[in-house]
């Protein structure tokens, strides 16, 4: 049983000659498929939320949607100003500032402030 035959091998192709080689070359030669980046949609109003989502929803129901959105807009603008001043004080460039603002938005979504 020490000897095995070639027919028992799992390899059934050739070693790069003949039709198999041409077929593989044709498959590889084509352009790569295009990928389209998809941006995630904001979670506002999606019903999902973090620990503060219930308080945000109750507040919105008490003071009304219009007034609530005005207050939320003012709070977001104030927070963005604070981030901008912080970046100025440490000498961060605009790209880093935008990254911090995006991170603040992501954290706000995660905590439920944008519920």
Task: Give me some keywords for this one.
elongated, mainly alpha, single chain, 4 helices, 115 residues
Task: Break the fold down into its secondary structure elements and pairings.
Blueprint: H1 19-29, H2 53-63, H3 65-90, H4 94-111
Instruction: Determine the number of helices (DSSP H or I, runs of at least 4 residues).
Output: 4
Taking the sheet with the most strands, its summary is: none
Name the helicity range: 55-70%
Q: Order of SSEs, N→C?
A: HHHH
How many beta strands in the DSSP annotation? 0
How far is the N terminus from the C terminus? Answer: 71 Å
Low-confidence stretches: 43-47
Query: On the 0-100 scale, what is the average pLDDT?
Result: 77
Using only CA atoms, what is the Rg?
Answer: 29 Å
Based on secondary structure, the structural category is: mainly alpha
What is the molecular shape?
Answer: elongated
Tell me what portion of residues adopts beta-strand conformation: under 5%
InterPro entries: PGR5
Protein name: Protein PROTON GRADIENT REGULATION 5, chloroplastic
Structure write-up:
- Helices cover 57% and strands 0% of the residues.
- It has 115 residues and is an all-alpha fold.
- The longest helix has 26 residues, at 65-90.
- Helix 2 (53-63) crosses helix 3 and helix 3 (65-90) packs antiparallel against helix 4 (94-111).
- It has helices spanning 19-29, 53-63, 65-90, 94-111.
- The chain is elongated and about 75 Å long.
- The protein has four helices and no strands.
């Amino acid at each position: 049983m020490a000897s095995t035959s070639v027919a028992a091998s799992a390899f059934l192709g050739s070693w790069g000659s003949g039709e198999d080689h041409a077929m593989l070359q044709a498959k590889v030669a084509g352009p790569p498929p295009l990928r389209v980046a998809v941006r995630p949609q904001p979670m506002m109003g999606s019903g999902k939320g973090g620990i503060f989502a219930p308080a945000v929803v109750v507040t919105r129901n008490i003071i009304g949607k219009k007034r609530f959105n005005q207050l939320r807009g003012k709070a977001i603008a104030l927070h963005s100003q604070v981030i901008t001043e912080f970046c100025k004080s440490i000498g961060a460039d605009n790209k880093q500032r935008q990254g911090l603002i995006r991170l603040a938005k992501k954290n706000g979504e995660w905590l439920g402030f944008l519920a």
